[in-house]
Every structure is written in structure tokens, then in C-alpha cells.
Amino acid sequence: MAAAGRQRLDKWLWFARVVKTRTLAAKLVSEGHVRVNAQKVDAPAKALSPGDVLTISLERQVRVLKVLDPGERRGPFEEARLLYEDLTPEPPAKDAMQDLGPVRDQGSGRPTKRDRRQLSAWLEQE
Asked: Sheet containing 39-40: which strands, arranged edge to edge?
């Protein structure tokens, strides 16, 4: 570790088991998928300290993690879980997503002209 309580971003992501390898952690940071305290970071060597909030855009989700400890090693999940507090908001309920407008039955084939006209009329109403 560098200064007391500080650690490289890519190393911390690997220690916290956010990614499988440190190389993938460095790639994730370099591609701009990580923000530290709401500022985009592109250097894997960015120093983290306790209290920093990370926003990580992964393949299928966005995670918000608060750094609690820099960590000593890449240990088991139970040990890695102590390095951060998960602030990720809950996904919206499925009931809230139900009111998206006219929905066709799954597997009922392509929409007909009539279906497309109804959809266009519905979209123009909003």
C-alpha cells in the first residue's frame, strides 16, 4: 500500500471482488466505466481512500459502492464484503414497468398493419 489508508483503484476493485482479475479492473477503469466521487476516472492508478464513493458501470448493472477499507489481500467473499458498503439503488418493481402501453403476446408473430397503426396512434396521444 502507498500512503496510509490509500490504495490503487484497480487493485481495490480486484480485492473487493468486483472483477475477476486485476487486468480486467484496469481495463474497466481505462474504458471510463468507473467514477470516483461522481468524477470520471481513466487512470487505474488513481488512489482511493476510505469514504470515497465509486459508481461502476458493469455489463448488466450499475453498482454504487462506498469504500470502507483499502484491504490487505484478495480474500474470500466474506472478507471482500467488509471492504465496501453497497449503496446501489433497488431496481424498479415489475408492476411499475407494466404500464408501458400496448403489449403484444410473446411469440404472436410480427405486428400487422392494424397493430402498427394502433401503436402509432397511441404514441401520438402522449
From this structure: 39-40, 34-36, 53-57, 62-67, 84-86
Distances in whole angstroms, Cα of residue 106 to Cα of each of 26, 99, 120, 126: 41, 16, 20, 25
Long-range contacts of 73-79 (CB under 8 A, 24+ apart): 73/15, 74/14, 74/15, 74/17, 77/17
Closest CA to 84 of 101, 62, 102, 69: 69
CATH number at residue 85: 3.10.290.10
* pLDDT tens figures, 48-57: 999 999 999 9
pLDDT tens, residue by residue, 72-117: 999 999 999 999 999 998 877 666 556 666 666 777 778 889 988 9
Per the DSSP assignment, residues forming a β-bridge with 84 are 67
The verdict on residue 113 lying in a domain is no
